[in-house]
Structure formats: C-alpha cells, structure tokens
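Structure representation:
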Amino acid sequence: MLSNQVDYLVTKLGLKPHPEGGYFSESYRSNEIIKCQPERFMGEHVYTTSIYYLLQQDNVSMFHRLKQDELWHHYVGSSVVIHILHPEEGYQRRTLGCTFEDELADYQVVVPQNTWFAAEVKDKTHFSLVGCTTAPGFDFSDWELANPEELALQYPQHRSLIERIMITHECSLA
C-alpha cells in the first residue's frame, strides 16, 4: 500500500531524486527576474520558487543551508522533524505536519537563511509529501551541502545527530 502511494505521487508530480536525499520536482517558478538582489546571490534570480518534496521511511534531507529563507508546508503523510542548527540560537527541533494527533506539529516552518538544517520523516513506516518555497527563487548556486566533520566541530554537542543524519547517506565522520 505504502509503495503504491509513493509510486503514485512520484509519477503524478514528476518527482526525481534530490542530491540531499528524498525526491522533488519544481512546481512553480515566477517569471519575473529580480533586478536588484542582495549581493550574496550569484546570477539572476526570480522572485520565488516552490517545490514538492517527498521523504519516505529512512530517507533524510541531509544537513544543508540556503542563501534565502525557506518556508516548508505539509501536504500529506507523516509529520516531518526538521533539525535546525542556528548560528546564534543553537539547536531547534521543529515538527511539520497537519494532524490533530500531533499537537507539537506546525502547518508551516520557516528555516532562516544561512542556517544548517536537515529533515526526516517522524513515522519511519510512512512517507511525507511537503512543499518548500523560497524567495528569492531557488538556484543550485544558493545550496550548500554540509561537510559532516566541519559541522560536528561547529556543533560538537550535536555530533550524534549530525552523524546519524549523514551516515544515513553514507557520509561518515572521522
């Protein structure tokens, strides 16, 4: 049953493997280009982009960061745990979901720009379909995958979390 639902969503939404884990497809890219954008961005950017993003069972979104804020919104399936390593505020565990049973879940979660974060399905027997929206619009030049050794040095108190997330995708710490 679960694989039928995932296969249906992969086909219906045209999902492809994402380099940080899971599956995605771009669902929206605005047509307008920002003429005067912040200098942290390389090249032209559109105003906003949005993707569908699917995680299943043991898939994770590995620790990465973006040059812009990213708004996550939940569509269907298990809640998602988002692990945020904020440079000033430290670790935050946010739960994204839309079930009445999960009182801690938020319908939307914002991950601030230049903040390391990872995500995983809360119920490891299920999947989750979410959406991610960025403004200015996403470009792969805005995306940085974490080096697990450097991230663990930066956040030594969260080494086991970083190791668990990164080992899921065969990135091990020395």
About this structure: The longest strand covers residues 49-56.
